Amino acid sequence: MKLTGREIVLGVTGGIAAYKSAEIVSRLRKLGANVHVIMTKNATQFITPLTMETMSNNPVVVDTFDRPATWEVEHIALAKRAEVFVIAPATANIMAKMVCGIADDMLSTTVLATKAPVLLAPAMNVGMWTAQVTQENAATLKKRGVQFVGPDAGFQACGDIGSGRMSEPVDIVEAICGILCPKLDMEGLRVMVTAGGTRERLDPVRYLGNDSSGKMGFAIAAAAKARGAEVTLVCGHTTAKQPEGIPTVRVESTCDLYDAVTTRAPEMDVIIQAAAPADYRFANPSQQKMKKEAGKPLIFELVENPDIAAAVGAAKKPGQTLVGFAAETENLLDNARRKLDKKNLDMIVANDVSKPGAGFNVDTNIATLITRDGLTDCPLQRKAELAETILDKVMELRKA
């Protein structure tokens, strides 16, 4: 994607994640964008204005009362120039100021004056992010049309683990591109995406399941929505952050997923089954917690679950596009091709979940997209990138 000549204002606030802002500028510049940086005074304690000036090739504004090289009312000039206004990192403090309309420095003054789309990349300690007031402020800003990317969860500079990490620069730039150059090639299409794993109960406290986090399905659903589709998300157990603004049906077992998918399938134009349903369930689940008997083995009988993809494929309507997933640990392409034919799919996304960086519970994936016309190799990449590639291929298939 090219951003040649596009005008972007980047606000940088005082958080440890400010060092990542230089990479955001670098990536935007490589795409051809013209980037103007506004830093708070606290931000200059983490990264210097000289660094940001060098990366952006533009003067960096810090003080509201600095005299510009050419006479303009600087905060109004930048507010008007911006095609998108990004704040990364966005601290709890700047979010609170924006909610209240406080304009006591160059950044808060300029963002208050802008009419451009505003994108925030929050970055703060998990306790600050999960605080009730911060969550209320975030909700208020979203209601006003402010867009968010992140925050992510993980290890934080203070040593805590949890939500509050600023999203990676590549994801922030991708969100900027989505605002400036939306691809709306899926407008008018009804798309159903399945995500996450199913659970088969042995008793009220134990179950048979898998490690699926839902990240791949969520990425596809979010990408389809951004491209204009009317998306329905059907998901089992997930640990990833669910995309906002998408109607969602929650299920537990594979039979639940089967019912939810097959009843909605006839209304859909595109069905992408990224969920990881359990192939078997317990024949005789207990209604009470099972107790162990010392020295005696516990033997279960498993029965096969219905094949959801095969059922959808058997009832496929003219004009529908069906996409399945094949998570394998051996004979990847052969096994995937058999599923493609057996389940009457238009495309199958094959990935070897034993490879580092691929499969369950990670942000990246390695895949091969298989259609009846050939293969498309997708090397290690973020799941959000793979989601776009999958949808690109879906649209190619629909035009063929």
Oligomeric composition of the shown chains: single chain
| SS content category | alpha/beta
Question: What is the strand tally?
Answer: 19
> How many individual helices?
13
Average pLDDT, to the nearest integer? 89
Explain this structure.
By secondary structure, the protein is of the alpha/beta class. The chain has two domains: 7-180, Rossmann fold (3-Layer(aba) Sandwich); 190-281 and 298-399, 3-Layer(aba) Sandwich (Rossmann fold). Helix content is 32%, strand content 24%. The protein is built from 13 helices and 19 strands. The strands form five sheets. Strands 12-11-8-13-16-17-18-19 form an eight-stranded mixed sheet, sandwiched between helices. A five-stranded parallel sheet has the order 2-1-3-4-5, sandwiched between helices. A two-stranded antiparallel ribbon has the order 6-7. A hairpin with a 2-residue loop joins strand 9 and strand 10 (206-208). Helix 1 (21-30) crosses helix 8, helix 3 (74-81) packs across helix 5 and helix 4 packs across helix 7 (132-143). The longest helix has 17 residues, at 383-399.
